[in-house]
Amino acid sequence: MNEALLHTIWKYRLLGKSQFRGSKEEDIEVISIGEHNQDSGPDFFNSKVRINDIVLAGNVEIHIKTSDWLRHKHQHDKSYDNLVLHVVYEHDKELPQNEQFNVSVLELKQYIKPSLLEQYHQLQLSKQPIACGKAIAHIPDIKWKSWLDRLAVSRLEEKTAYIEHLFEYTRNSYEDALYLLLFRNFGFKINNDAFELLGKFLPYSVLKKYADQPTQIESLLFGAAGLLDDLFDDKYPKQLQNEFEFLKHKHKLQQIKREQWKFSKTRPVNFPTIRISQLAGLIGKQSSLYHLIDQKPDLQTIRHFFEVEPNSYWMTHYSFDVETESGSKFLGDKAVESIIINTIVPYLFFMSKNGNKTDLIEYGINLLSQLPAEVNKKTKEFVGLGINTESALESQAQIYLLDNFCSVKRCLSCQVGESLLKSSSK
Q1: How far apart are alpha carbons 107 and 116 in whole angstroms?
Q2: Which of 347, 349, 353, 369 has the alpha carbon at shortest distance from 361?
Q3: pLDDT tens, 65-79?
Q4: Measuring CA to CA, which residue among 405, 399, 360 is closest to residue 382?
Q5: Which one of 6, 20, 161, 393 is least enclosed by Cβ atoms within 10 Å?
Q6: Same domain for 149 and 229?
Q7: Single pTM value for the model
Q8: Is residue 337 part of a domain?
């Protein structure tokens, strides 16, 4: 037994009734459970109860044992004076303060159904990634969808916190913050930190000067990435090398150490060299990503923006001086969708918060709802339980649910856990 469970039982009226007998045989009727307090002070504010024939309004404190009042030193805290009911799982001690202020004690042990406790213990003891297992598929659809919508927003708020950091780093430049976020997410997780560092070492203000000069953009990106410091045989990297030597001194640029890039344990199409060549194509576009999304284009227009063709050299290479069979190096659909999910939509959410533009939230949510659901290790856990995931909005919500609720057993704070406990209490 723990207080969090008692709070849930009280908050969602899982006792199955509203009339009880107090520790001194008084009649107790719970008219209103009150407002759950997440900060210091009594657990529920503004509750309303009827003790015998008297209606009282005030606060409710919940403990496992009555004596916990003394253990928590509430007797020395004036904020607990306006108590109308002391709710406990086990009444083990009469308290002078309860006697002094005529506070009734309600012992819950006799009212909580064993099936509810059994359901709770099953959730907490489960070794599965998703404790509720296949029961999750039987949650009413309207409740499940509503919960996913809330979780998707929480996921976006979580990502927004990092954009705030980038915004501060760029001295409150919206365009530069988006630039760094785009760079970071071009690392596709395995090289995120290295790509972000590349963006910081190579300011957008420098790259914009060469927007119509592809070779200069490529030399700046590959050079600042520390990937032009070898002796090459091919003409293309030699040309980039020569260009970068001049531009490096002109703009006083720093370079990343080559060792910071991860090539192993990743598919060749995700090599930093290929991703940088794709990024160079985006930087060279006449319209920047910042100006594009400011117009709130439809999904197809955004997809078209990312249709960039890297330098023809990369059609037959994944690394400098190592020729391979010819193959397309365009950004794939999944890569573009990942950028929309992790860059564009969170940035829209950030913009809406900073600029009080609520329409951007709706626009971003709409983009997520149009994208197909992500398929990865986390979302597969839900598929395996019979959950039909219809969009990226829902898969993002599922990722947040798994990371922030299931993995830490926050079943009592989850709408699914709440539904299961309610069902077991009937």
Answers
A1: 17
A2: 349
A3: 999 999 999 999 998
A4: 399
A5: 161
A6: no
A7: 0.89
A8: no
